[in-house]
Amino acid sequence: MQRAINYLRGSVRLEVVGPYPERYFNICSARGIRFWGVERLDETSLRLTVSKVQARRAIALGARCLCDVTAVQERGAPSRARQLARRYGMLAGLALSLAAVLVLSRFVMVIHITGNEAVPTEIIRAELARIGLDVGSYGPALEPRELSNRALMDLEELSFLSVNLKGIRAEVVVREKAPVPELEPTEGEADLVAAKAGTVEEIIALAGTALVEPGAEVEPGDALISGRVTLTRRDDPSVVIDSYGVRAKGFVWAEVEERLSAAFPLTASWKVYTGETQTRWELSFFSQRFQISKKTFQPFAEYDKIEEQWALSLGEGLELPIALHRVTARAYEGNAVALNADQAEALLRETLERRLARSLGEYDAVLARDWTVERRDGALSVTLTARCREQIAVTGEE
Amino acid sequence: MAERKRKNLLEKTARTFDLPGDVVAGLTRVELVGREELYLQNHRGILAYGEEEILISGGKLMLRVRGRALCLRSMTPTDLMISGQIDAVELE
């Protein structure tokens, strides 16, 4: 502790030379001058340390005991400060650093969004930027509660959004709305109609009255199960007692024809890199970009542009809006290459099979397939005609 | 002379009434902490100083501190502290 105090006050190392340097101790102590670190050099000289404020008096006291007292070294904070005061570059850097800390810490540099799964982070970030919270926004001018309310009004997929400003960081916590299940209407009268044309194979009417028989040909929109239920007499079905409307329910399986087509060009353009590249270095600060490489950047007629970025990071993935960019242009020439027709056909068949499988329901089935392959205008065209057993009944208009 | 008489009177008073002599009469008080530190109160100044021997005036008596690497750590008008390897303290 005393050493720290001595350092802060500053000290001066004195060399005392005289016939009786011990007398110097007595004079100093009698005059209230504190000293320490006494070191005997020889019979007539010694060194000791006094505080900087008492050094001048201590030197003057040497004459009273016939000693020659000289300051040989200065130590401590005051002398160090004097040395540093002459380093103008360092002082300027220190001033700039202080200014950067004081000024830049008032701006938002990092926006950290958590809690979103379905809503992309970029969508939330763009909305926040639109209402005033962006990298480079002036922090004290932002109202977190107002930002939250405005963002929630526009981002309908979110149920909660909070903005917390912590220095240069804006922590945005969101909660998404739970998806509302699709409710099947239970009231009103509605028919089941055919979604596709086909030949009816089987009808299961759970609610309502079946209007078609197996073997009937139906077109899209034809009513299959009516929502109108009539009550007739048991002994005479021609006599209608009453009727009421329901939402028709049921399944109608029919044999339908699915026709799917796909085409593939038999020639393709292929990139052949020439080996020529050009590189440009840029520095981005907030939304501004500065080119720092002197070389002029004149890309080629056909080229790939590859950009790599190294952002200044605070750790934990928190990137500051200061980044170094390397933009590389790789020249290439386009070469036309003929593709293998068999491979193209196999690819198209596989694609069409996938599309057909996606269009069928859980209990639907493919009964037969017919493939048509033709070449037209330099492209290979494949058509799949499939006979399928599908459930075609859908709810019609009420 | 008058000062010496006053000092003698104070010394006798301290002895008679069993009072601390260093407080009442300003007698020299020596405190040794192990072999490394020596505190001295009510000294009258240093007469000789060296790394192996320091001679201190205590008024009526003289204190000789012998040892190795002796060092005057601090000194005020009344107190001083010596550190180092102290081998002997002699009164003269």
Explain the layout of strands and helices.
The complex is a heterodimer of chains A (398) and B (92).
Chain A: H1 2-9, E1 11-17, H2 22-30, E2 35-42, E3 45-51, H3 52-61, E4 68-75, H4 77-85, H5 88-104, E5 110-114, H6 121-130, H7 144-154, E6 158-166, E7 169-176, E8 192-194, E9 198-207, E10 209-210, E11 217-218, E12 223-226, E13 228-232, E14 240-245, E15 249-265, E16 267-285, E17 288-291, E18 303-313, E19 319-338, H8 341-359, E20 365-376, E21 379-391, E22 393-395
Parallel strand pairs in A: 5-7
Antiparallel strand pairs in A: 1-3, 1-4, 2-3, 6-7, 8-12, 8-22, 9-11, 9-15, 10-12, 13-14, 15-21, 16-17, 16-19, 18-19, 20-21
Chain B: H1 2-16, H2 21-24, E1 29-33, E2 37-41, E3 45-49, E4 53-57, E5 62-75, E6 79-91
Antiparallel strand pairs in B: 1-2, 2-6, 3-4, 4-5, 5-6
Verbal overview:
The complex is a heterodimer of chains A (398) and B (92). Chain A is α+β, with helices and mostly antiparallel strands and 398 residues long. Among the domains of chain A are: 2-81, ACT domain (Alpha-Beta Plaits, 2-Layer Sandwich), CATH 3.30.70.260; 110-176, Ubiquitin-like (UB roll), CATH 3.10.20; 192-250, no CATH class; 280-334, no CATH class. In chain A, 23% of the residues lie in helices and 46% in strands. Chain A has helices at residues 2-9, 22-30, 52-61, 77-85, 88-104, 121-130, 144-154, 341-359, and strands at 11-17, 35-42, 45-51, 68-75, 110-114, 158-166, 169-176, 192-194, 198-207, 209-210, 217-218, 223-226, 228-232, 240-245, 249-265, 267-285, 288-291, 303-313, 319-338, 365-376, 379-391, 393-395. In chain A, the strands form 6 sheets. In chain A, strands 11-9-15-21-20 form a 5-stranded antiparallel sheet, with helices on one face. Chain A has a 4-stranded antiparallel sheet with strand order 2-3-1-4. Chain A starts with a helix and ends with a strand. The relative contact order of chain A is 0.10. The model of chain A has no long low-confidence stretch (mean pLDDT 88). Chain B has 92 residues and is of the alpha+beta class. Chain B has a single domain (27-91), classed as Immunoglobulin-like. Chain B has 2 helices and 6 strands. Chain B has helices at residues 2-16, 21-24, and strands spanning 29-33, 37-41, 45-49, 53-57, 62-75, 79-91. Chain B has a 6-stranded antiparallel sheet with strand order 1-2-6-5-4-3, with no helix packed on it. In chain B, 21% of the residues are buried. The model of chain B has no long low-confidence stretch (mean pLDDT 84). Classes of the chains: A alpha+beta (398), B alpha+beta (92). Chain A binds chain B through residues 21-23, 25-26, 28-30, 32, 34-36, 38-40, 46, and chain B through 45-51, 71-77, 80.
